[in-house]
Design a protein that fits this description.
The chain has 19 helices and twelve strands. By secondary structure, it is α/β, with parallel strands linked by helices. The strands form two sheets. An eight-stranded mixed β-sheet has the order 5-12-11-6-10-7-9-8, sandwiched between helices.
Length: 479
């Protein structure tokens, strides 16, 4: 992943990261407050030799004491030193238990021995440190004394231990800082893991990583889409309306060898295919195109409900020969948009849509209209859309941002490729308008879009459209 990908991950998961940091800070605070405050006090003694007057003798004596320092440090934790301290102060501890609270060290290349004692009582810590230093001095003098000879070393107290004013442990600021750093690391790890495990399509970049087919449209999410599915009629200046106009423009520039019929489908239900088909058809009609919109979803038809027209008779009746196309196609509004509803739901939708009569119907409509848009069922549950895609110029595959999974999208592409259907392009619907996955929406559109008025076509299907074209051509020649 690139740096921009990590930045996008952080922007997208910042709430999770902040929550984990706060949890880590809370855990650090609880840990710090739950611990008993411990105080530390230190006392220092220095060991030197008592013999020697020349430089050589002094140097040799100094070397001797430095070599013996490590032994004295070990001696300080022995019962020989600690038992007298326990007896003197009346401690209810053994020498081994007291040794856990006593730390004895000596700086490198020195003969100074430092005794540090940790205890919950600051006064007791100071008393123990001083008592250990005194007992150590006595023990050193005893172990270094030779028979019938004075001790060659001299122990001199340097500093006495004093009660500490502030506890040495717990270090609350340090614990909180460490908690915040650990929380940040965990938060970033969780954010990256969520992104890696998330198989849903979030942006056009995810689609481009799955297919070479062009992304010809990105429709912004509209929380009111269910109440106003036909956005081009409800709010022509809405960014969602402009997105459908951009889809119309991109569709017109596709090299489809003069193709005029398109199937609009998706991998799974509820991805916005029907609203995309209807609004795309309206956008094409607004541009002066003669458009035929067919509801090819013979399982859950929605076009008639969206457009507010009668849908009891339609495509099914035409395919079984129960009705004539001229009688069931309906003109919608002032646009040159003609709608063929689904009609009654048949028991064999796939067979009807894959019939020779359906292919002839599409060919005839494609010859006489500028564009034919079919709303088809999803590809993965049923085969209807794949059957229709073979008889049209191309399929427009709709994927919902944040809902469609990558394996579902790839499966839908495989279905189309298996039947040798052409994928004209991909439309990403429900794109967020804010956040890291936003596609750049949010700008206001101050222009008012008015649909082009074109000569109305009669309700006569193919023959009517051919007649209307001839009349328009005669009118242009006479002008």
């Amino acid at each position: 992943m690139e740096l921009s990908d990590y930045i996008r991950i952080l922007r997208k998961n910042w709430i999770v990261i902040v929550a984990i940091i706060l949890l880590a800070l809370g855990a650090s605070a609880v840990y710090s407050l739950a611990r008993t405050p411990l105080y530390q006090s230190s006392s220092d003694i220095m060991v030197s030799t008592q013999s020697g007057s020349s430089s050589a003798e002094l140097t040799q004596s100094n070397t001797y004491t430095q070599a013996r320092v490590n032994s004295w440090v070990e001696l300080a934790s022995s019962p020989k030193v600690l038992d007298p301290v326990i007896h003197e102060l009346g401690l209810a501890q053994t020498a081994a238990q007291l040794a856990d609270d006593v730390a004895v060290s000596s700086p490198l290349n020195t003969t100074v021995v430092t005794t540090t004692v940790t205890n919950a009582d600051p006064n007791l810590a100071a008393d123990i440190a001083n008592a250990v230093a005194d007992s150590l001095a006595t023990a050193i003098d005893e172990v270094e004394t030779l028979p019938d000879a004075p001790s060659p070393v001299k122990v001199t107290p340097i500093s006495a231990a004093l009660p500490a004013e502030a506890p040495a442990s717990p270090n609350v600021p340090l614990n909180l800082a460490l908690g915040a750093l650990i929380g940040l690391a965990l938060g970033i790890g969780v954010a990256v893991l969520r992104t890696v495990l998330d198989t849903r399509i979030r942006s056009t970049r995810d689609i481009e990583a799955l297919t070479e087919r062009p992304v010809i449209g990105a429709i912004p999410h509209d929380p009111k889409a269910e109440a106003r599915p036909i956005i081009l009629q409800a709010d022509p200046q809405n960014p969602r309306s402009e997105a459908f106009r951009a889809l119309r423009t991109n569709l017109q520039f596709l090299d489809l060898e003069g193709g005029r019929s398109f199937v609009v489908t998706s991998s799974m239900p509820s991805e916005g295919k029907s609203t995309t088909a209807v609004n795309l058809a309206i956008a094409l009609a607004d541009a002066g195109k003669r458009v035929v919109l067919i509801d090819g979803d013979l399982r859950k038809p929605k076009v008639a409900d969206y457009l507010g027209i009668e849908g009891g008779v339609g495509l099914t009746d035409v395919l079984i020969g129960r009705a004539n196309l001229n009688d069931v196609v309906q003109k919608w509004g002032r646009r040159s948009l003609y709608v063929l509803p689904a009609g009654k739901i048949p028991p064999n939708p796939s067979e009807l849509l894959g019939s020779t009569r359906m292919t002839e119907l599409l060919d005839g409509l494609a010859r006489d209209a500028d564009a034919v848009i079919l709303d088809a069922p999803p590809l993965l549950p049923v085969t209807d859309a794949a059957v229709l895609a073979r008889s049209t110029s191309g399929a427009i595959l709709v994927a919902a941002a944040g809902s469609t999974h990558r394996n579902q999208f790839s499966g839908a592409l495989d279905v189309l490729e298996n039947v040798n259907a052409h994928v004209a392009g991909v439309v990403l619907s429900m794109v967020p308008t804010r956040g890291p996955d936003a596609y750049g929406y949010g700008y206001g559109y101050g222009y008012r879009y008015v649909a082009d008025e074109t000569p109305e076509l009669p309700h006569a299907g193919n023959a009517g459209m051919r007649s209307n074209r001839r009349s328009a051509a005669r009118a242009r020649r006479s002008a």
